[in-house]
Amino acid sequence: MKEDPEALVAAANEARRFAHAPYSGFRVGCAVVDEGGNMYRGCNVENAAYPEGICAEANAIGTMIASGGKRIAAIAAVGGRDEIEPCSPCGGCRQRILEFADQHTRVFMIGPDGEIQAHTIGDLLPTSFRL
Ligand SMILES: [Zn+2]
User: Fold this and answer.
1) Measured in angstroms, how far is the CA atom of residue 28 from the centroid of ligand 1?
2) Terminal CA-to-CA distance of the chain, rounded, Å?
3) How far is the CA of 56 from the centre of ligand 1 (A)?
4) Contact 75, 60 (CB under 8 A)
5) Is 46 a catalytic residue?
6) Minimal CA–CA distance to 105: which of 55, 45, 64, 53?
7) Which residues of 111-125 are buried (b: 16+ CB within 10 A; e: fewer)?
8) What distance in Å separates the CA atoms of residue 43 and residue 12, rounded to the nearest whole number?
9) Catalytic one among 14, 35, 57, 115?
10) What distance in angstroms lies between residue 89's CA and the mean position of ligand 1's atoms?
């Protein structure tokens, strides 16, 4: 279960149901599992002041940290207006993921044919910012 792609995608899709996306209509859900196998969910939360909205990934990662989780073992994100569409984490969220992951941490998303795709965060953000 710890890094089961189908379970993570299903949890992300469950969180997506609660997205607050009245402006874009693009609802995103995310599920993170930490090293201990604990799962955390998040959805996007838009705001009338657009830049104040937050991504589903940021929401889920924040919940992991606030709950005592330390490291991301795997993460899934799904999004779409009505049905799930191909959707990948935005640039900012790739950096957010990498803060609590390593280059090999798997990121699951939905591909163009509705299939679950597995990437590594290193593939998605090969030249990340580091202090
Ligand atoms: Zn994002």
Assistant:
1) 9
2) 34
3) 7
4) yes
5) no
6) 64
7) eeeeeeeeeebbebb
8) 8
9) 57
10) 5
Global confidence as pTM:
0.95
What is the distance in A from the centroid of ligand 1 to the CA of 59?
9
- Pairwise CA distance, residues 107 & 124, whole Å: 9
DSSP code for 85: B
Q: For residue 91, report the distance from its CA to the centre of ligand 1, in Å.
A: 7
Taking the centre of ligand 1 as the mean of its atom positions, its distance from the CA of residue 102, in whole angstroms, is: 18
- Select 5-124's CATH number: 3.40.30.10, 3.40.140.10, 3.30.2380.10, 3.30.930.10: 3.40.140.10
* DSSP type of residue 93: H
pLDDT in tens, the chain (131 residues): 468 999 999 999 999 999 999 999 999 999 999 999 999 999 999 999 999 999 999 999 999 999 999 999 999 999 999 999 999 999 999 999 999 999 999 999 999 999 999 999 999 999 999 89
Cα separation, 4 vs 25, in Å, equals 28
What residue ranges do the domains of the chain occupy? 5-124
